[in-house]
Amino acid sequence: MQIGRQIWMTRTSGDLALRDRLALLSHSLFLLFNKQLKAMP
Fold first, then answer.
1. What is the DSSP annotation of 1-41?
2. pLDDT digits (tens, 9 = 90+) for 1-41
3. How far is Cα 8 from Cα 3, in angstroms, rounded to an integer?
4. 1 CB-contact burial (10 Å; exposed 0-12 / middle 13-18 / buried 19+)
5. Which of 24, 23, 20 is nearest to 9 (CA)?
6. Using an 8 Å Cβ cutoff, are 16 and 9 in contact?
């Protein structure tokens, strides 16, 4: 299972890198948004 996933990851490394960056960006934005909501009175 792990080996197959490794091969798949290397095969689509370019696409995966972009998707990873987008996921990371949206995740950090979501965290920032959550912090803003919690800071509101």
1. -HHHHHHHHHHTHHHHHHHHHHHHHHHHHHHHHHHHHHH--
2. 566 666 665 666 677 678 888 898 999 999 999 999 898 87
3. 9
4. exposed
5. 20
6. yes
